[in-house]
Amino acid sequence: MTDLTKLSLAAARKGLIDKSFTSSELTGAYLGAIEKANPSLNAYVAVTGEQALGMAKASDAKLAQGQGGALEGIPLGIKDLFATKGVHTQAASHILDGFKPEYESSVTANLWRDGAVMLGKLNMDEFAMGSSNETSYYGNVINPFRATGSNANLVPGGSSGGSAAAVSAWLCAGATATDTGGSIRQPAAFTGTVGIKPTYGRCSRWGTVAFASSLDQAGPIARTVEDAALMLTSMAGFDVKDSTSVDVAVPDFAAAVERGVKGLTIGVPREYRQDGMPAEIEQLWRQGLDWLRAEGATVKDISLPHTKYALPAYYIVAPAEASSNLARYDGVKYGLRVTGKDITDMYELTRAAGFGREVKRRIMIGTYVLSAGYFDAYYVKAQKVRTLIKKDFEDAFQAGVDAILTPATPSAAFGIGDEAMANDPVKMYLNDIFTVTVNMAGLPGIAVPAGKDGQGLPLGLQLIGKPFDEETLFAAARVIERSADMDFSPKPWW
Ligand code: GLN
User: Which residues contact 100 (CB under 8 A, 6 or more apart)?
Assistant: First the structure.
């Protein structure tokens, strides 16, 4: 039998329906691959083997009768940010030690409703704060890709680094991820995978550990555009339990994938042309535009004048919301408790021991910008800037643009412990320069692998769409995927 783990999600689905193999076989193959690879890649923080085989068996019974949901029997990895009932859920933080929720997140519940199988929980940056997966309490995730001729370990990106690495290294057929400023798209770009952050409100946030509630969105990371479309169709949907979830119909996203781009207008924002941007990325961007043009799209220069304020404004809004969301971890209700001489002492000791450096930095920044004397100067101002960023996009769409093409990241994957970034958090924050505007505006954005740099490392392009128009993004990303026509699988060294 061919290696089942190498099949795309769509092909695996077909194989299950045709009874070429069973979900138990497919799930067993993935569990074997995880056992072999995880000591090297550190993508999973918990493997739920027994549960997986149980779910697979139940799927097999349905499939044998020609029944089952849209993802029946498909083994998936779940980012550690999603609450999974009775299963390890720690947002890769020490402070949630031993936390096993009593409830299931709406996104994962939707996946199980459609028949998917849970392989385990995926590593991530602590509380989804980071761009390299180095802030995880469980240690770095390693990128399955290495530069040609090098044995040096690279970061998989973050915060959904475990999701991206697991998908790229064939340790699941697809994975859930979340994106607050770029955490789906940046790791997807660093690992040659496809990641979509849908419109804010498309997926329920209920049961997903909150980082910055007005920015957080769940989405899939997958090996192909079609696979991402299949997963999002199951993950998305209105949910009364999340007041920011939007009551709009979920289209069959996979049906939009082959729609093409004929007649579409693709915007190219001049502000995304960064000084010092590597020539390879500039070149890839131009190549992407040529591919879209060749398939009948029109390319149009646009201006998004407030782009340069997006990152600074994000680093006010996101820490502000995080400082409030993370106030609940105090040793009383969840996870870790370090006892002290009185209750205040207990709070302080627990939070000091439980949170890592980056999380503490965010809590301090957030508390500062929300404090009485500074609220108007920082937080209120940042919210105003956010409105202007959103308006930039609205103006572009109003002027006839259907989608916007940009690079996904300013570089390819970098080294673990990269000194420049370790010494200067702002350098790390710059990873999200192209993605963070999209969260600030609540828009959908997809990262699709489009080429490789001189060292053989994957590079991605990003498409940004109108609210609730993920279908156009899937269609345009598919054109890029098809035109690039490149193998984005890593060479296994693990
Ligand atoms: N890298 C960004 C941050 O650390 C975005 C993270 C995310 O999207 N969750 O805030």
Answer: 85, 86, 87, 88, 89
